[in-house]
Amino acid sequence: MTKWLQSGRRRDICVLLAAASDSDTSDTAALEADAERQAAHRGELRGQQLKSQLESHYDDRIEPKSFYGTLSALVDTGFVEKRTEGLHDVYALTEAGERRLYDHYEWMGGCLDADR
Fold first, then answer.
1. What are residue 38's phi and psi, to 5 degrees?
2. ∠98-101-105 over CA atoms, to 5°?
């Protein structure tokens, strides 16, 4: 397992970005009306959206410096890309990040299936 997968927060951020890229695209009119949902439609989330979703999942506050440090590490390793949209930084999972995430998912599934 590579070092980036040793952090649960890094894995969880990648999972949220992968889920955003798999979001339902059938409601085109609503997507056009809502900028945040439109970004999620493209598999992108703003940093604050990611942070809020993680805090909700963990049921705990995450220090901004720690959270954005984690995002920077993912960008530096090439698993997440960052771009600026207006005043906001928007993040998306790269092909390399998606590949690594699904490799890890398969590994976890194999471990869980072996125990049954």
1. -65, -40
2. 135
Structural domain boundaries in the chain: 3-114
Which two tokens mark 3?
A: 């070092």
- Total length of the chain: 116
What residues contact residue 17 under an 8 Å CB cut-off, 6+ apart? 43, 44, 45, 50, 80, 91, 92, 93, 97
CATH 1.10.10.10 matches 3-114: yes
Rounded-to-integer distance, Cα 91 and Cα 78, Å: 12
pLDDT, tens digit, 9 for 90 and up, residues 37-85: 444 445 899 999 999 999 999 999 999 999 999 999 999 999 999 999 9
Say if residues 14 and 20 touch (Cβ distance below 8 Å): no
- 8 Å CB contact between 70 and 13: yes
Rounded to the nearest angstrom, the gap between the alpha carbon of residue 29 and the centroid of all alpha carbons in its chain is 25
* Model pTM score: 0.76
100 vs 39, residue with greater confidence:
100
| Burial grade of 21 (CB within 10 A; 0-12, 13-18, 19 or more) | middle
